[in-house]
Amino acid sequence: MAGFKAAFANELYKLMKRKKVITAAVLSIVAVLVGQAAVTAIQMGFGLRMAGGGDFPLVVLPLLTYTLLPMFAAFVAIDMFSGEFAANTMKLTLTRPVSRFGVFCAKTASLAVFIIGNLLFVMVLSMIAGFLFNSSPEGIGEIVRVVGAYVATFLPVFVFSLLVVLLSNLFRSGAAVFFLSLLIFAAFHLIGIMFSGYSSFLITSKFDWYTLWISETFNVAKIIREFLIMAGMGTMLFAAGFYLFDRKDL
């Protein structure tokens, strides 16, 4: 456990030093500002009320989930594996008194921290923007609803990032992994549209899982079913990713 803690702290330190983390934060701020500007323009131009103070974060969330968040999660996952193997810095990591399993868990845990941090950052930023620029103050129930939506978004995005981790241990080229991840992301969306009966087995179809948590009718059975599907996907991807990582030559 001590070895894992040291490896996890090391991965978090390296994560904070990555320029992609700063870029993700800057683009998240830009996305929130652009979204707020669009909402304000529509409300002033057409007299339509698109979002109240507590609704605006839920307007931003799908834009974040389907664009910036999975893209930068993929970037970070690629840097942690393909990037370090290509730069020969993985040798330094594996010379520490930590098993490969401990190193792999530390890297995936720090990837999870990145996703959670990005979600919380955008949530707080969009809530502030919503309360400042949109009328209609909301109660504590609306805040809980927003927090629940952002928390629920973590799992499907993390499972998708585990797919990128698997690809990063399968291919050495970071560029190849990124473009393949984009291709899979687009293909999953297309398959989900063309063959909707099979969409429940595609991780990208779970990106709107949060809507089940904030809908007026709380469908417990569907929430549990989709959670088990994602948990199964995540377990298989984690196991396959570690198998490749464990067998990879330096």
Please report the distance between the alpha carbons of the first and last residues: 25 Å
Helix proportion of residues, in percent?
over 70%
Number of helices: 9
From the alpha carbons, calculate the radius of gyration and give it in angstroms. Answer: 19 Å
The total strand number stands at 0
Residue stretches low in confidence (pLDDT < 50, at least 5 long) are none
> What does the largest sheet look like?
none
Residue-averaged pLDDT: 84
Helix/sheet category: mainly alpha
Order of helices and strands: HHHHHHHHH
What is the 3D shape? globular
Strand content: under 5%
Total of domains? 1
Provide structural commentary:
- The chain is mostly helical.
- The protein has one domain (about 1-245).
- Helices cover about 80% and strands about 0% of the residues.
- α3 packs parallel to α6.
- The radius of gyration is 19 Å and the shape is globular.
- The two termini are about 25 Å apart.
- The mean pLDDT is about 85.
